[in-house]
Design a protein that fits this description.
The protein is built from ten helices and three strands. By secondary structure, it is an all-alpha fold. Putative odorant or sperm cell receptor. Odorant receptor.
Length: about 325
C-alpha cells in the first residue's frame, strides 16, 4: 500500500549529536582526564615502538613486524574515537557531521576487525617460534607475513563495507541524538525510521564468526604452545615462555571480553543492563588494549626494552646510536 508518507523522501540529517555516556554526565570531566592520559600513552608508547623497530635493523623478525603493524592499528583505532570523546566529556560538544559519523564508524569497526586478525597472526608466530623453531624463518617469510597482513585487511574491508552501506542507507527520522560516545553502528541505526534489524543481525553474525574463528585458532595455538613449554627440561625456559604467553593472553582477554560483551549485551541485555554500562563496555575495548599493548608486547620484550632505552638516552643526553 502506497500512502502519502511514501511519497516523502527523507533527507539524511546534517549532524548527529553524541551524548557521551548516558547517566554518567556528572563523571564526564574525570573520564575526559583519564582518557587524555590513556590516549597520551597510546600515542607515545605505540609511536616509540614503531620508531624503535623501524630504526633498529636487528628487529626484523616476524614478531616485531607484526608488533609494528599492531601499534599502527592501535593508534588508528584509538584516534578514531578518543579525541571526539575527550571533546564531548570536556565541553559537552557532541556534534558530528553525517559523513563524519559514518567515516568514524567505518574506521573504528574496521580497525577492531584488523586488530583481532593481528592477534591471531601473533599467536601463530609464537606457535611457530616455540613449536617449530628450526623452521621459523622458512615458514614465516616476508612474503607470507605480507600476505597475512593483506588478508587480514581485506577481511576487515569485506566485513565493514556492507555494514556501513546498510546503516548509511537507512532513512533517518527527526531524532539526531546518538546515545553513545562515538558513532557505534547499533546506536546510530536505532535512530532510523526503518527497522535496524538487518544491519544489527549482520553485525552480530559477522562479528561472531570473525572473533569466534580467531579465538578458536588462538586457543589452539596456545594449547600447542603450552604442551611444548611443559615438555622443556629447563625450568627457566618454562617460566619465561609462560610469562610471555600469560601476558599475551591477558591482553587478548581485555580486548575480546569487553568487545563481545558489548555486542551481545546490546542484543540480549536490553532493559536489564544499564545503558551507561553498555556504552562503557564498548568504550573500554577500544581504549584499554591500545594503552596496554605497548607495555605488554613492547616493554616486556627484552630487545625492544633495550633499544627503547638506548633511543631515549640518545634523544635526551646525546647517547650514541642504537646498540644492536
Amino acid at each position: 500500500m502506497v500512502g502519502p508518507a511514501d511519497n516523502h523522501t527523507m533527507e539524511p540529517p546534517d549532524t548527529f549529536f553524541l551524548v557521551g555516556i548516558p547517566g554518567l554526565q556528572s563523571s564526564h570531566l574525570w573520564l575526559a582526564i583519564t582518557l587524555t592520559a590513556m590516549y597520551t600513552i597510546v600515542l607515545l608508547g605505540n609511536s616509540l615502538i614503531m620508531t624503535v623497530i623501524w630504526m633498529d635493523s636487528t628487529l626484523r623478525e616476524p614478531m616485531y613486524c607484526f608488533l609494528c603493524v599492531l601499534a599502527a592499528v592501535d593508534i588508528v583505532m584509538a584516534s578514531s574515537v578518543v579525541p571526539k570523546m575527550v571533546v564531548i566529556f570536556f565541553s559537552g560538544d557532541g556534534s558530528i557531521s553525517y559523513n563524519g559519523c559514518f567515516i568514524q564508524m567505518y574506521f573504528v569497526h574496521a580497525a577492531t576487525a584488523v586488530e583481532t586478525g593481528l592477534l591471531l597472526a601473533m599467536a601463530f608466530d609464537r606457535y611457530v617460534a616455540i613449536c617449530k623453531p628450526l623452521h621459523y624463518n622458512r615458514i614465516l617469510t616476508p612474503q607470507v607475513m605480507l600476505g597475512m597482513c593483506v588478508a587480514i585487511t581485506i577481511r576487515a574491508v569485506i566485513f565493514m563495507t556492507p555494514l556501513s552501506w546498510m546503516v548509511s542507507h537507512l532513512p533517518f527520522c527527526d531524532s539526531k541524538v546518538v546515545l553513545h560516545s562515538y558513532c557505534e553502528h547499533i546506536a546510530v541505526a536505532k535512530l532510523a525510521c526503518a527497522s535496524p534489524m538487518p544491519s544489527s543481525l549482520y553485525s552480530m553474525i559477522g562479528s561472531s564468526i570473525i572473533v569466534g574463528c580467531d579465538v578458536v585458532f588462538i586457543a589452539a595455538s596456545y594449547n600447542l604452545i603450552l604442551r611444548a613449554v611443559f615438555g622443556l627440561s629447563s625450568k627457566n625456559a618454562q617460566l619465561k615462555a609462560l610469562s610471555t604467553c600469560g601476558s599475551h593472553v591477558g591482553v587478548m582477554a581485555l580486548y575480546y571480553l569487553p568487545g563481545m560483551a558489548s555486542i551481545y549485551v546490546a542484543w540480549l541485555g536490553k532493559g536489564t543492563v544499564p545503558l551507561h554500562t553498555q556504552v562503557l563496555l564498548a568504550d573500554l575495548y577500544l581504549v584499554i588494549p591500545p594503552t596496554l599493548n605497548p607495555i605488554i608486547y613492547g616493554l616486556r620484550t627484552k630487545q625492544i626494552r633495550q633499544q627503547t632505552l638506548s633511543l631515549l638516552m640518545r634523544c635526551l643526553f646525546g647517547h650514541p646510536n642504537l646498540s644492536s
